[in-house]
Amino acid sequence: MTDRLVVAVVPQAPVFLDLAASTALAEEIIIRLAREGAGLVVFPETWLPG
């Protein structure tokens, strides 16, 4: 039997220069994708503003 990992890559843009809103959006995206079967959700490295 082969184990399978579903990886989701997020192409959606964050909320421009808004850390709190981008974090909330990321949480919504992660929850939705996890419900759809993703075991790993990947965002671009600069998705959350500093």
Which properties best describe this structure?
two-stranded parallel ribbon; single chain; alpha+beta; 12% strand; 50 residues; elongated; 1 helix
What report would you give on this structure?
- The protein has 50 residues and is α+β, with helices and mostly antiparallel strands.
- The chain has one domain (7-42).
- The protein is built from one helix and two strands.
- It has a two-stranded parallel sheet with strand order 1-2.
- It starts with 6 loop residues before the first strand and ends in an 8-residue tail after the last strand.
- The model has no long low-confidence stretch (mean pLDDT 92).
Mean pLDDT: 92
Biggest sheet, strands in spatial order?
1-2
How many structural domains can be distinguished in the coordinates? Answer: 1
The low-pLDDT segments are none
Order of H and E elements: EHE
- End-to-end CA span: 43 Å
Helix % is 25-40%
CA-based gyration radius: 12 Å
How would you characterize the largest beta sheet?
2 strands, parallel
Shape field? elongated
Kindly state the number of beta strands: 2
Contiguous helical run count: 1
